[in-house]
Amino acid sequence: MKKIGVLTSGGDAPGMNAALRAVVRKALFEDIEVVGIYQGYDGLIKGEFELFELGSVGDIIQRGGTILRSARSPEFMTEAGRQKAADNLKAEGIEGLVVIGGDGSFRGALELSVYGIAVACVPATIDNDITGTEFTIGFDTALNTVVEAIDKIRDTASSHERIFIVEVMGRDAGDLALWAGLGGGAESIIIPEEPLAVNEVVERLKQSSERGKQHSVIVVAEGVMSGDKLSQLLKEEADVETRVSVLGHMQRGGSPSARDRVIASRYGARAVEELQAGQQTVAIGMRNHQIVAYPLQDVFETKDCLDMEMLKLSKELSI
Ligand SMILES: Nc1ncnc2c1ncn2[C@@H]1O[C@H](COP(=O)(O)OP(=O)(O)O)[C@@H](O)[C@H]1O
Ligand SMILES: O=P(O)(O)OC[C@H]1O[C@](O)(COP(=O)(O)O)[C@@H](O)[C@@H]1O
Ligand SMILES: [Mg+2]
């Protein structure tokens, strides 16, 4: 392989820059030319290409967001869009593409491979919702951001003896809510993977109040319902007063944690190695502390389950 491309796509995640740096530096180390593609799949269709050098990715390992910028591209969802993207890549002599993004971006990459472009996908999303890998880039940083926020909210919750609802990101995935809830000692955690039982939340609040604890933190993943909606439900069904904090897009920003930088560097380099070895459709990830490469199709054939033992444990510990 003589020339590869690299892009970032979908929701940005802290550590995408570190992964980009690794892809570029590893490729150049292996004497492979590397082209940065701006704005995700939109840039692939528009031909927003730039030949990268060692210095192109200098001073970015510590920066959040992505210098390549990201996009959600409706045009790439069409066959005509993907054909144009593949034509642009071939015209540039690009034989392989590293896609740094989430599950949607991985699906797009699989669709692109049909046109004879080799693809290696690097998991980067704060949702941590990609089958086949235990960790995605950005999850650790976002988790620490959320736990820090919960700690601060807990200070005011206990001072005023109030019940707080903290709404965190996660459209379909509860990883962030579950890990942050356990790490932040939340009294209740509400995630898409477990049906919501408002009466269970109310019961826990009641028990805790009877034991003399008047403050509580409830973490809810936005995919289940908004914090405001939950607040309204608790008021209507149990006359419980709450305050709501919506953490929003601050969860996606900030300098990546050391852990995210390390996994990003390892994933990015491995993606280049896989393309160099002739893999056509591959996903990179981590299992039992080992970096692994596995068939991209596997991501869509099954769905990794959340560790529900963690939810059970959080209930046992936060009484
Ligand atoms: N089924 C698909 N076919 C082709 N492209 C897709 C498909 N699903 C997603 N994509 C592309 O990937 C982009 C990013 O996906 P999205 O789900 O928004 O983010 P993420 O990759 O973070 O999950 C989409 O905007 C679209 O261009
Ligand atoms: O930035 P947007 O378009 O509002 O999207 C918000 C969504 O993006 C995420 O932050 C990341 O999801 P993706 O990785 O699928 O892009 C979700 O947690 C959140 O629900
Ligand atoms: Mg996604």
TrEMBL record:
Residues engaged in binding Mg(2+): 103
Domain Phosphofructokinase: 3-273
Main subcellular location: cytoplasm
Residues the record lists as binding ADP: 21-25, 154, 185-187, 211, 213-215
Catalysed reaction, written as an equation: beta-D-fructose 6-phosphate + ATP = beta-D-fructose 1,6-bisphosphate + ADP + H(+)
Residue positions of the active site: 127 (proton acceptor)
Leading EC class: transferase
Pathway of action: Carbohydrate degradation; glycolysis; D-glyceraldehyde 3-phosphate and glycerone phosphate from D-glucose: step 3/4
EC code(s) of this entry: 2.7.1.11
Keywords: Allosteric enzyme, ATP-binding, Cytoplasm, Glycolysis, Kinase, Magnesium, Metal-binding, Nucleotide-binding, Transferase
SUPFAM superfamilies recorded: Phosphofructokinase
GO molecular function: 6-phosphofructokinase activity
Binding-site list for ATP: 11, 72-73, 102-105
UniProt-annotated location(s): Cytoplasm
Activity regulation, per record: Allosterically activated by ADP and other diphosphonucleosides, and allosterically inhibited by phosphoenolpyruvate.
Binding site for substrate: 125-127, 162, 169-171, 222, 243, 249-252
CC cofactor: Mg(2+)
UniProt family annotation: Belongs to the phosphofructokinase type A (PFKA) family. ATP-dependent PFK group I subfamily. Prokaryotic clade 'B1' sub-subfamily.
NCBIfam families per record: PFKA_ATP, PRK03202.1
Subunit structure: Homotetramer.
Function: Catalyzes the phosphorylation of D-fructose 6-phosphate to fructose 1,6-bisphosphate by ATP, the first committing step of glycolysis.
Protein name per the record: ATP-dependent 6-phosphofructokinase
Species assigned in the record: Savagea faecisuis
